[in-house]
Design brief:
The protein is about 35% helix and about 20% strand. The protein is an alpha+beta fold. The chain has a five-stranded antiparallel sheet. Strands 1-3-2 form a three-stranded antiparallel sheet. Strands 9-10 form a two-stranded antiparallel ribbon.
């Protein structure tokens, strides 16, 4: 059976330049520290090189070809299927499409978080942006202001709100900004039938772009 190191080595040879976070996500290896340990071992064996990539993170590159490698790998039951790499969703793309930068998440006493400005009360689509890309996209059918209120003060049974609250809080504690972009796409129709513009936009963004904080089927 292939080890984590074997899978990582095969993937790095096919897709060089991936950082540890990308490897953990694409190969579904948890926790992320497992990838870091495996990559450092592969570097010590002279199989990969680890150096800073264009995104500023430490990335992994292959060093030896399969023919010159002395390390014996166990037979693979099947070739690794390369995952489909989706593009990142940038703030420029959001703004050009009609999104508006409305607020930023701010930290208060006792690690409470809230938007820095009043948000629209009507329903719409929102995006959380940090490090020059969107990390999360959601649909607020109850209104954007009310939906984001629960991210700051999640209820005991609101699992998604609890999960996003932790991510936002930890990001702010790390000294990074999380911006809030919002949009209100118009309602549409198809062959005389109503089509929800905001629900369609949210689904299209989630299915098209790489959004690290989104879980498929969870808003």
């Amino acid at each position: 059976m292939a080890t984590h190191a074997d899978r990582i080595l095969g993937f790095v040879r096919s897709f060089p330049g991936r950082d540890d976070d990308e490897l953990a996500r694409m190969l579904d290896i948890q926790p992320r520290q497992t990838v870091n340990i495996a990559c450092r071992r592969l570097r010590s064996e002279g199989l990969i090189d680890r150096r800073r990539g264009p995104n500023g993170k430490i990335c992994n590159y292959p060093l030896r070809s399969v023919a010159s490698e002395t390390r014996t790998l166990p037979p693979m039951p099947a070739p690794i299927e390369a995952p489909v790499l989706r593009p990142v969703l940038t703030p420029d793309t959001l703004l050009k499409a009609g999104f508006v930068l409305s607020a930023k998440w701010t930290m208060h006493a006792e690690r409470n978080v809230s938007p820095s400005a009043s948000l629209p009360k009507q329903r719409g689509v929102y995006a959380f942006v940090l490090d020059g890309r969107a990390y999360y996209v959601g649909l607020a059918t109850m209104g954007i202001a009310k939906r984001l209120y629960f991210y700051g003060r999640p209820g005991a049974t609101q699992r998604t709100s609890q999960r996003l609250n932790v991510l936002i809080t930890e990001t702010l504690e790390a000294g990074k900004e999380v911006s809030i972009y919002v949009a209100h796409p118009p309602e549409l129709s198809w062959n005389g039938l109503p089509v929800s513009g905001d629900a369609g936009l949210e689904l299209g963004l989630i299915e098209t772009y790489d959004l690290p904080w989104n879980k498929r089927g969870v808003r």
